[in-house]
């Protein structure tokens, strides 16, 4: 009689060392602690006490030493404080990409593909009859010779213009994207951590563009009372501040960045959870956290219209479910002719990935 024999599961037999297991957890914790290595290690020790992550053969001290040896962690000589390295920063981005977007199939490094055929860079399997103005290098000679033999016979070879067939090519587009991240205080209100998913999405998107679309550009703008650009390497350390939501400053900065980009295809992705509550007039801040202030809202709508004139679509990812806030986002989106997604925190990454990938398959006019 045939049956099954069960044995104890051994994770080491699956090729995953104790260090690799602990590293995955450590990288996750670094995202939540905004890159604070000491706090992440404190959490590691607490989890070790509760779940026995280590044993006598391999302790937490061994893990720390191996982190340093492999270049994930550095220790300040004088203060003894731990800091993560650029290798850790890159690992966090890669883990975010794998977690949110899944493991992407290896593809050639290049630009985005669009649905518009023409004198492009990549050969398309489709052919069509020759037209005046087509370039000679586009001629599919195999197909053209076959047409000539069919039309005029094999023994007396003759090729006419109507025998020629053209191999289509696809335009390859480059895209410039600005990702706006709301870091106002509401991103951690009511016991809900909204900034960590936003950071993970930003890190995953930056890793996607750098590895799969290296000719694209990605700029990251954070906005609270003011707005300022940050580098990709700064993302793990991003924190929410005691700020209002100056969406206007974020949009103005994003527009200024995109004006300097030479790519024809430009777009803004905005991750926010609340309404605009602040604008800066001269050196003073005008703030109103109660309801939708038309003085602030109208400025936002005007900028949405300006972006439309500049051919910059705005895709808003709203991680809040209040009906009156959704109404504002819909009004904002209609003014820009862009798109809006009302995404839950666990679906945020999938929404952005699908929109980013699908949006690059067409030319933006």
Could you describe the 3D structure shown?
The chain is flat and about 85 Å long. The chain has three domains: about 15-85; about 115-170, no CATH class; about 175-360, von Willebrand factor, type A domain (Rossmann fold). α9 links the parallel β12 and β13. The strands form four sheets. The protein has a six-stranded mixed β-sheet with strand order 8-7-6-9-12-13, with helices on both faces. Strands 3-5-4 form a three-stranded antiparallel β-sheet. The chain has a two-stranded antiparallel ribbon with strand order 1-2. The chain has about 375 residues and is of the alpha/beta class. It has ten helices and 13 strands. Helices cover about 40% and strands about 20% of the residues. The chain has helices at about 20-30, 35-50, 60-70, 85-100, 140-150, 195-210, 245-260, 295-310, 325-335, 350-360; strands spanning about 75, 80-85, 110-120, 120-130, 165-175, 175-180, 215-225, 225-230, 265-270, 280, 285, 315-320, 340.
**Total beta strand runs:** 13
CATH topology of the largest domain: Rossmann fold
Oligomeric state of the chains present here: single chain
Largest sheet: 6 strands, mixed
Broad structural category: alpha/beta
Series of secondary-structure elements, N-terminal to C-terminal: HHHEEHEEHEEHEEHEEEHEHEH
Report the radius of gyration as a whole number of Å: 27 Å
Low-confidence stretches: 103-123, 361-365
**Helical run tally:** 10
Average pLDDT for all residues: 82
Shape: flat
Domain tally = 3
CATH class of the largest domain: Alpha Beta
């Amino acid at each position: 009689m045939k049956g099954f024999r069960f044995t104890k599961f051994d994770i080491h037999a699956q090729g995953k060392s104790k260090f690799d297991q602990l590293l995955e957890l450590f990288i996750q914790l670094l995202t939540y602690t905004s890159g604070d290595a000491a706090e992440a290690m404190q959490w590691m020790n607490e989890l070790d006490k509760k779940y026995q992550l280590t044993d006598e053969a391999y302790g937490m001290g061994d893990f720390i030493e191996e982190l340093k040896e492999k270049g994930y962690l550095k220790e300040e000589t004088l203060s003894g404080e731990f800091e993560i390295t650029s290798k850790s920063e890159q690992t966090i981005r890669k883990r975010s990409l794998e977690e949110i977007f899944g493991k992407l199939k290896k593809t050639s490094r290049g630009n985005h593909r669009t649905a518009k055929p023409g004198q492009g860079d990549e050969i398309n399997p489709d052919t069509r009859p020759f037209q005046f103005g087509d370039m000679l290098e586009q001629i599919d000679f195999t197909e053209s010779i076959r047409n000539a033999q069919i039309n005029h016979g094999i023994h007396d070879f003759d090729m006419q213009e109507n025998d020629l067939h053209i191999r289509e090519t696809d335009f390859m587009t480059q895209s410039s994207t600005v990702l706006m991240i709301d870091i106002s205080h509401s991103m951690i209100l009511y016991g809900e951590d909204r900034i960590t998913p936003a950071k993970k999405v930003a890190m995953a998107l930056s890793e996607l563009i750098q590895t799969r679309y290296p000719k694209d550009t990605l700029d990251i703008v954070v906005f609270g009372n003011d707005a300022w650009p940050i580098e990709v390497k700064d993302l793990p350390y991003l924190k929410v501040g005691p700020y209002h939501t100056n969406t206007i400053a974020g949009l103005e900065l994003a527009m200024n960045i995109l004006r300097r980009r030479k790519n024809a295809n430009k777009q803004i992705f905005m991750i926010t959870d609340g309404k605009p509550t602040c604008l800066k007039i001269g050196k003073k801040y005008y703030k109103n956290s109660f309801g939708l202030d038309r003085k602030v809202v109208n400025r936002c709508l005007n900028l949405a219209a300006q972006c439309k004139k500049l051919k910059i679509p705005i895709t808003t990812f709203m991680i809040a479910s209040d009906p009156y806030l959704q109404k504002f986002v819909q009004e904002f989106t209609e003014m820009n002719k862009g798109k809006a997604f009302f995404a839950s925190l666990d679906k945020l990454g999938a929404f952005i990935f699908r929109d980013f990938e699908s949006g690059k398959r067409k030319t933006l006019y």
